[in-house]
Amino acid sequence: MEQLSKWETLLMLLGGLLMVAGSGASLFLQSWAPYLFAPGAVLFAAVQMRQRYNGRNFVIRRLRRMVLVSDVLFLVAALLMLAGQSNFLGLDYLSYIKYVHNNWIVVLLVAAILQLYTSHRIANELEKEAKKR
Fold it and tell me: What is the pTM of this model?
């Protein structure tokens, strides 16, 4: 895996902190929470999508694809969080309640579990790869 520069690490950390603050503020029903979460999700996902793996290890390549899926899920959670603020998708009330209202939490949970799993597995696989050399 390519090592992130100091600026990329800082941007990723800032994005993660904004996501945590935005999701935490939404628990206290703050109306500004989606506007804090969404830029954080964009920053976090953009930095992770920019990181590359140029090796041939199939397991790490598969795990990187899972990271990309979780990044997309973070962005979908941000979109659903914003849509929960105001029904800009134009759905009728029943569809809105069924598909949008607070479903960002489920998407965020799936993305976070994928991130947690892949971060540990990638670290272990990179360690195995380094020992082989």
Answer: 0.88
* Nearest by Cα to 67 from 126, 117, 130, 1: 117
> Is 80 exceeded by the pLDDT of residue 106?
yes
Judged by DSSP in three states, 101 sits in: coil
Reported confidence tier of residue 9, pLDDT bands at 50, 70, 90: very high
Question: For helices 58-85 and 33-50, what crossing angle results, to 10°?
Answer: 160
Angle CA 98–23–117, to nearest 5: 90
**Predicted confidence (pLDDT) per residue in 35-67, tens digit:** 999 999 999 999 999 988 888 889 999 999 999
**47-80: buried (b, 16+ CB within 10 Å) or exposed (e) per residue?**
bbeeeebeeebeebeebbeebeebbebbbbbbbb
Residue 66 near residue 77 (C-beta atoms within 8 A): no
